[in-house]
Model the fold of this input.
Amino acid sequence: MSEAQEKDYFWFYIGGLIATTVILVLMLKADETKHLQSGAVAQSQAEVFQKIENKHMNNRTQ
Done:
């Protein structure tokens, strides 16, 4: 008689780990670029350039 074979779930575990890793990386990447969509970076950069320009103009008039 044939013996009952024990199921091997090794590849299911590996596949699950790979899928979980990919999902977590995609979620973190989406969260990483969230600040770029708000426009805060562009606004801050515009303020800095304005302050630099004002400083240059003040130095020229003195």
Q: What stands out?
A: The CA atoms of residues 44 and 56 lie 19 Å apart. The radius of gyration is 28 Å. The chain has a mean pLDDT of 84.
